[in-house]
Protein backbone atom coordinates (compact mmCIF):
# COMPACT_ATOMS: atom_id res chain seq x y z
CA UNK A 1 0.00 0.00 0.00
CA UNK A 2 1.30 3.43 -0.88
CA UNK A 3 0.50 6.56 1.15
CA UNK A 4 -0.36 8.35 -2.09
CA UNK A 5 -3.47 6.17 -2.41
CA UNK A 6 -4.80 7.85 0.75
CA UNK A 7 -4.71 11.30 -0.84
CA UNK A 8 -7.55 12.66 -2.95
CA UNK A 9 -7.17 13.07 -6.72
CA UNK A 10 -7.65 16.82 -6.28
CA UNK A 11 -4.65 17.08 -3.94
CA UNK A 12 -2.54 14.88 -6.22
CA UNK A 13 -3.43 17.16 -9.13
CA UNK A 14 -2.46 20.24 -7.09
CA UNK A 15 0.89 18.67 -6.16
CA UNK A 16 1.56 17.86 -9.83
CA UNK A 17 0.75 21.44 -10.84
CA UNK A 18 3.18 22.73 -8.22
CA UNK A 19 5.85 20.26 -9.36
CA UNK A 20 5.59 21.29 -13.00
CA UNK A 21 5.55 25.02 -12.15
CA UNK A 22 8.64 24.65 -9.94
CA UNK A 23 10.53 22.62 -12.55
CA UNK A 24 9.70 25.18 -15.24
CA UNK A 25 10.74 28.17 -13.13
CA UNK A 26 13.99 26.72 -11.76
CA UNK A 27 15.11 25.01 -14.97
CA UNK A 28 17.69 27.74 -15.66
CA UNK A 29 19.15 27.70 -12.13
CA UNK A 30 22.14 25.37 -12.00
CA UNK A 31 22.05 22.98 -9.04
CA UNK A 32 18.34 23.29 -8.17
CA UNK A 33 16.10 20.29 -8.62
CA UNK A 34 12.65 19.04 -7.60
CA UNK A 35 12.25 15.63 -5.99
CA UNK A 36 8.81 14.03 -6.24
CA UNK A 37 8.40 11.83 -3.17
CA UNK A 38 4.90 10.70 -4.09
CA UNK A 39 2.89 12.46 -1.39
CA UNK A 40 5.31 15.39 -1.01
CA UNK A 41 7.68 17.47 -3.11
CA UNK A 42 11.13 18.74 -2.19
CA UNK A 43 13.03 21.55 -3.89
CA UNK A 44 16.73 21.00 -3.26
CA UNK A 45 19.15 23.88 -3.67
CA UNK A 46 22.30 22.78 -1.83
CA UNK A 47 24.21 22.79 -5.15
CA UNK A 48 22.92 26.23 -6.20
CA UNK A 49 25.48 29.08 -6.28
CA UNK A 50 25.08 31.28 -3.19
CA UNK A 51 24.05 34.32 -5.22
CA UNK A 52 21.04 32.40 -6.62
CA UNK A 53 19.69 30.96 -3.35
CA UNK A 54 17.39 33.92 -2.65
CA UNK A 55 15.96 33.61 -6.17
CA UNK A 56 15.19 29.91 -5.57
CA UNK A 57 13.41 30.73 -2.30
CA UNK A 58 11.39 33.53 -3.95
CA UNK A 59 10.32 31.24 -6.80
CA UNK A 60 9.31 28.55 -4.31
CA UNK A 61 7.29 31.01 -2.18
CA UNK A 62 5.60 32.51 -5.26
CA UNK A 63 4.61 29.13 -6.73
CA UNK A 64 3.46 27.55 -3.46
CA UNK A 65 1.71 30.71 -2.28
CA UNK A 66 -0.87 30.24 -5.02
CA UNK A 67 -2.00 26.92 -3.47
CA UNK A 68 -3.33 25.72 -0.15
CA UNK A 69 -0.40 23.52 0.90
CA UNK A 70 1.94 23.14 3.86
CA UNK A 71 5.48 24.40 3.39
CA UNK A 72 8.49 23.27 5.42
CA UNK A 73 11.99 24.70 5.22
CA UNK A 74 15.06 22.64 5.97
CA UNK A 75 18.78 22.91 5.38
CA UNK A 76 19.01 23.85 1.69
CA UNK A 77 15.69 22.11 0.96
CA UNK A 78 12.12 23.41 0.73
CA UNK A 79 9.29 20.91 1.09
CA UNK A 80 5.66 21.02 -0.02
CA UNK A 81 3.11 18.78 1.69
CA UNK A 82 -0.62 18.34 1.13
CA UNK A 83 -2.87 20.27 3.52
CA UNK A 84 -3.84 17.16 5.47
CA UNK A 85 -3.03 16.16 9.04
CA UNK A 86 -1.10 12.96 8.36
CA UNK A 87 2.32 11.84 9.44
CA UNK A 88 4.10 8.48 9.51
CA UNK A 89 2.69 7.64 12.94
CA UNK A 90 -0.91 8.33 11.89
CA UNK A 91 -0.44 6.29 8.71
CA UNK A 92 0.97 3.41 10.77
CA UNK A 93 -2.03 3.50 13.11
CA UNK A 94 -4.43 3.67 10.15
CA UNK A 95 -2.67 0.65 8.63
CA UNK A 96 -2.93 -1.27 11.92
CA UNK A 97 -6.68 -0.60 12.14
CA UNK A 98 -7.15 -1.78 8.53
CA UNK A 99 -5.18 -4.96 9.21
CA UNK A 100 -7.12 -5.64 12.40
CA UNK A 101 -10.40 -5.40 10.46
CA UNK A 102 -9.09 -7.70 7.72
CA UNK A 103 -7.10 -10.20 9.80
CA UNK A 104 -8.49 -9.93 13.31
CA UNK A 105 -6.72 -9.05 16.53
CA UNK A 106 -3.58 -10.69 17.88
CA UNK A 107 -1.17 -9.82 15.08
CA UNK A 108 2.04 -7.92 15.84
CA UNK A 109 3.45 -5.38 13.40
CA UNK A 110 6.77 -3.59 13.61
CA UNK A 111 7.31 -0.24 11.88
CA UNK A 112 10.87 0.96 11.41
CA UNK A 113 11.82 4.39 10.11
CA UNK A 114 15.14 6.19 10.03
CA UNK A 115 13.33 9.45 10.82
CA UNK A 116 11.46 8.11 13.84
CA UNK A 117 14.06 6.81 16.31
CA UNK A 118 11.49 6.19 19.04
CA UNK A 119 7.88 5.29 18.35
CA UNK A 120 5.50 4.11 21.04
CA UNK A 121 3.41 1.18 19.93
CA UNK A 122 0.40 -0.19 21.78
CA UNK A 123 -0.06 -3.86 21.09
CA UNK A 124 -3.09 -5.96 21.97
CA UNK A 125 -2.05 -9.54 22.55
CATH class of the largest domain: Alpha Beta
Mean pLDDT: 83
The CATH architecture name of the largest domain reads 2-Layer Sandwich
Which descriptor suits the 3D outline? elongated
Q: Give the radius of gyration.
A: 18 Å
Structural class: alpha+beta
> What's the main sheet like?
4 strands, antiparallel
Low-confidence stretches: 117-125
Which fold name fills CATH's third level, the topology of the largest domain? Alpha-Beta Plaits
Counting DSSP E segments of at least 2 residues, the number of strands comes to: 4
Helical content (DSSP H or I, runs of 4+): 25-40%
Strand order in the largest sheet: 1-2-4-3
Amino- and carboxy-terminal Cα gap: 25 Å
Overall tally of structural domains = 2
Amount of beta strand = 5-15%
Order of helices and strands: HEEHEEH
List the total number of helices: 3
Q: Could you name the CATH homologous superfamily of the largest domain?
A: Trehalose-6-phosphate phosphatase related protein, domain 2
Characterization of the model:
This protein has 125 residues and is an alpha+beta fold. The chain folds into two domains: 3-81, Alpha-Beta Plaits, CATH 3.30.70; 87-125, no CATH class. It is built from three helices and four strands. A four-stranded antiparallel beta sheet has the order 1-2-4-3, with helices on one face. β3 (70-74) and β4 (77-81) form a beta hairpin. Residues 117-125 have low confidence and may be disordered.
Amino acid sequence: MHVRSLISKEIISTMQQIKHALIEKISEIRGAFVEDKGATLSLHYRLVPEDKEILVKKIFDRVCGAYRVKVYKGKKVLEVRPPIEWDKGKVALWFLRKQEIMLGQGNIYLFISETMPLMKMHLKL
